[in-house]
Amino acid sequence: MRPDLRTRPTAAELVSELTNAHVLARCLHVLAELGVADALDDDPAAPGELALRTGMDADALARMLRLTAAHGVFAAAGAGYVHTAASRLLRSDHPQSLRALVRMRGSPVMWRGVTALGEAARTGRAAAHGWASLLDYFAARPAEARVFNDAMAVKSRHVVAAVLDAYDFGGCAVVADIGAGPGHLVQAVLERAPAAVGVLFDLPHVVADAASTPSPRLEAVAGDFFVDALPAADAYLLMDVLHDWSDADAGTILAAVRRAAPGDARVLIIETLVPETPGPHVGKTLDVVMLAVTGGRERTAAEHGALLAAAGFRLLRVVPTRTPYSIVEAAPTRDPRERAPT
Question: What would the CATH number be for the domain defined by 155-332?
Answer without folding.
Answer: 3.40.50.150
